[in-house]
Amino acid sequence: MTNKEEQQWPIPESVSEVEHYMKQRVGLGVSFDLNIRKLKVLKKDVHIYSVSGLVDTRYAIELVEELVEINDHEKLSADLFKIIENRLVNQSVQPITLLTEMVDYILTGLIVVVIDGESTAFVVDVRSYPGRSPQEPDTEKVVRGARDGFVENIILNTALIRRRIRDERLRYELIKVGKRSKTDVSICYLEDVVDPDLLNIIRKELKSIDTDGIPMADKTLEEFILKQGWNPFPLVRYTERADIAAAHILEGHIAIICDTSPSVILTPTTYFHHVQHAEEFRESPAMGTFVRWTRFLGVLTSIFLLPLWLLFVLEPSLLPEKLAFIGPNEQTNIPVIIQIFLADFGIEFLRIAAIHTPTPLSTAMGLIAAVLIGQIAISVGLFVPEVILYVAVAGIGTFTTPSYELSIANKIGRLTLLLLVAFFHTPGFVIGATLLFLFLVKMRTFNTPYFWPFLPFEPKGFLQIIFRRAVPGSILRPSIVHPRNRYRQPPN
Hints:
Blueprint: H1 3-7, H2 15-26, E1 34-41, E2 44-51, H3 57-68, H4 70-73, H5 80-87, E3 93-96, H6 99-108, E4 111-115, E5 121-124, H7 154-164, E6 170-177, E7 183-190, H8 196-207, H9 218-226, E8 237-239, H10 242-251, E9 254-258, E10 264-267, H11 285-314, H12 336-356, H13 359-379, H14 385-400, H15 404-442, E11 444-445, E12 448-449, H16 459-466
Antiparallel strand pairs: 1-2, 2-4, 3-5, 4-5, 6-7, 7-9, 8-10, 9-10, 11-12
């Protein structure tokens, strides 16, 4: 028997045959969380299947009470199938006829009601997944703004977006990914705005994923869809904020929501999408522009500050007289490039340790690190003070980058530039910076230029990157998403 033939098996009319199938193939009686409730309704057997921990027990009890009360109010000659269909007091009741559908729904957390003598069962949605309530994401905090964020429940996540976009053209397409995990993945878009070619590509890529499961959720989806390989730069944007996701969807982007993950994938995106933050749009345009410029400066600092300083240390003649003080005033036995790498990796150790350190211990860890990498390391001659200063400033620039993935990619670019400067001095810096720029310019995500609107240059789009324009002045949607409806507001 092939899998395709098995997927077309109808639900047997005998409830005992259904129970036998559940015992043989699904583990009924072995798995403690797989439940069956057997009832006698109008002298017919009715079986209710569910999974403990995935259903709301209160609603399940109410359904059982409704079915039991049928014996007190209906005649034996009544049509039991129609009566049960009407007595399932729930907003989501769906008839099904295939065994594989029935098993999938049960394992997803729905209740399935099987009636003896009927080849059609009823699916009742009383899911109550374990999880936390919506709260502000730790990595995308704002001073003023919404405090709700995505959670690990796809139902709640779609509701958070629906609450912000109450448009009848908002669509949620559901696809199951993984032969064993059967994870729910939803494609979210505005039907009259989204680029249909991009939508078809994403839909096709998701449906073609052939794997056991996606326990790492959205990141696994990204690797299957984009086939990124060893490219460190992020090709999609992740967000845990519902307002950011809604703003991108209104622009014409596509959101991919994966169950069990609090992050939503936004695509297509460019380099400049990863350096924007919700804080800019919660302030006035002037303040938002100032914050954006400061963030851009931090990003540039995280990439180029250390390589430039090392270049000036190795070739002091490049400095004008007024800046001749730049560079270490003390001689050490450890080469400057080794000091930079030691200090840089020290900060990376701290970042990784902070992730794995319990909150009550993180403050103590920070104090110990400040002492070890600070004054003591300088006193014993391991570092010169300038190295600590510039590595710290570059590290702060890394932390100002809103996208975690982009900050790590920029750090890899910085370390590569440092090595080139250490070996080849000025030619190394010039060639390395040029190759990094060309690499970013050449990149494309879903045929979208990664450095748009800088290259290819689009004046209006570039101005919107440089300046945080007021919302009333942002009439057009970004052309990079190829929206079918270009206007966000009626043109004057």
